[in-house]
Design goal:
With about 425 residues, the chain is of the alpha/beta class. Helix content is about 45%, strand content about 20%. It folds into 4 domains: about 90 residues, Rossmann fold; about 100 residues, 3-Layer(aba) Sandwich (Rossmann fold); about 140 residues, Reverse transcriptase/Diguanylate cyclase domain (Alpha-Beta Plaits); about 80 residues, Arc Repressor Mutant, subunit A (Orthogonal Bundle). It has a 7-stranded mixed sheet. A 4-stranded parallel sheet has the order 2-1-3-4. A 4-stranded parallel sheet has the order 6-5-7-8, covered by helices on one side. The two termini are about 45 Å apart.
């Protein structure tokens, strides 16, 4: 697969990165230069649809692009000790200038001090301007200019072309730190590998199973129910429209049951993962509908995951959707603003044995762990479990007490009740108590 790589930065940086990017057969580099950083937003907006991967010449253009809604894979060239060493060699060895009295910007403090340490050079007289989010360039120019004017430094070192040009125009001795070839190659390699992994993930098969409650219970005085078939056709029409919107194929499995095949990329790209369809089905009929979504590398694996997801959706309640990822992680209910994700596999025999003694399944245990994470504070009450897992508070208390007996939960406190009654116990659930 060949990725279209957008290289964003000043002209000299872009040209340098472009020449190295041409070494790779799997990358098609595109030069996107700017003179003023304010142009970055426009560059990204114009090219967002055609670029697969973004590589920025530095942290500043990257931050500006991110602030303005950059969504695709993006990277920036980090300037580290090796980049600084290259510049210091130019200042001290080539131009014979003092590298102990200099000002620097945008570099990490530890990178600077470690570099000086490695070179055996004192760094007590260095002045650093560390990056703390986007800063107006004029402020950085003033930082260097004032230090030079006050005779505190002999040389200024910047990572920004704009700052370099401004200081040069003010007759301030200035040098610019640029990425090394090794740094650029490592960034390009990492960028492509992440994009390739993402492409593989997006091409996974997605199966969506849709079930509308027992449609055959529709009351009809006729042996052949016209109303039943009209309703089924209306439901099918909504599902076909949705399948078309995600470039999927639709198959009817009989009255009230349908299956949609698509890809993970198409389904995730729609943003709602079937929630819009679920809402539409609820408007068409009062009959309970559920959706199970499964991802897999084969259609069989994806369908098995979808069936498991549908089982959990029906168990949870009406008009809910669940998802089972290709790695076995279950997420849901998707229709809630807050959902929980949990696993249904466990390879630790000791934990499995203790759960068996407690009479709690691994799925329920992992659900409780996810609820605990969701409510925060690394703690949970029976009310939390009952609310999230749709069970009675009494049943939730029994589960938590059984886990405590097997040392998979511990009581860490009590919560004062809002009305009359006993204080509620607060538990911490886990395998490492």
């Amino acid at each position: 697969m060949k990725a279209k790589l957008g290289i964003v930065g000043p002209k000299d940086s872009v040209n340098f990165i472009y020449r190295i990017a041409e070494e790779y057969d799997n990358i098609y580099p595109v030069q996107l230069m700017y003179h003023d950083p304010e142009e970055i937003t426009n560059i990204v907006q114009k090219n967002e649809r055609v670029i697969d991967i973004w590589v920025f010449s530095g942290l500043t253009p990257y931050t500006l692009a991110k602030k303005n809604g950059l969504h695709k894979l993006s990277f920036y060239l980090e300037l580290d000790g090796s980049s600084l060493t290259k510049t210091l060699m130019e200042i001290g060895y080539k131009d014979r200038k003092n590298i102990q009295r200099i000002s620097l910007d945008m570099l990490e403090e530890h990178d600077v001090y470690e570099t000086y340490d490695d070179l055996g050079i004192p760094y007590e007289k260095l002045y650093l301007y560390e990056y703390q989010g986007y800063t107006p360039f004029e402020e950085i120019v003033a930082f260097h200019q004032n230090l030079f004017k006050d005779n505190k430094v002999d040389v200024c070192v910047t990572c920004l072309r704009y700052v370099y040009e401004q200081l040069e125009s003010l007759s301030v001795p200035v040098y610019r730190v640029t990425p090394t070839r090794v740094n650029i190659r490592e960034t390009l390699k990492a960028a492509y590998q992440q994009w390739e992994t993402q492409q593989f993930k997006q091409s996974q098969i997605a199966v969506m199973l849709i079930r509308t409650g027992d449609a055959k219970k529709i009351d009809s005085n006729k042996s052949f129910s016209y109303d039943l078939h009209r309703l089924d056709l209306e439901l099918q029409n909504a599902i076909v429209d949705y399948a078309e919107s995600i470039s999927g194929s639709y198959v009817s499995l009989g009255i009230g049951n349908s299956i949609v095949f698509s890809t993970r990329g198409s389904l995730e790209g729609s943003g709602q993962q079937g929630l819009t369809l679920l809402e539409k089905l609820s408007l068409i009929s009062d009959l309970p509908s559920n959706i199970g979504i499964g991802y897999g590398e084969t259609s069989l694996a994806a369908e098995e995951s979808a069936r498991l997801a549908l089982y959990h959706a029906q168990k949870y309640g009406e008009f809910s959707a669940f998802l089972v990822d290709n790695n076995g992680t279950i997420e849901g209910p998707l229709k809630e603003q807050q959902s929980i994700a949990y696993g249904y596999r466990n390879e630790n025999k000791e934990i499995s044995d203790r759960l068996k003694q407690a009479g709690v399944t691994i799925t329920t245990f992992n659900k409780i762990l996810s609820v605990q994470t969701g409510v925060g504070n690394h703690a949970i009450t029976a009310s939390d479990v009952a609310e999230w897992l749709k069970m009675t508070p009494r049943h939730a208390r029994r589960i938590l007490n059984s886990l405590a007996e097997q040392e998979l939960a511990e009581i860490i406190g009590e919560d004062a009740p809002t009305s009359r009654g006993r204080p509620r116990r607060i538990y911490r659930v886990g395998t490492d108590l």
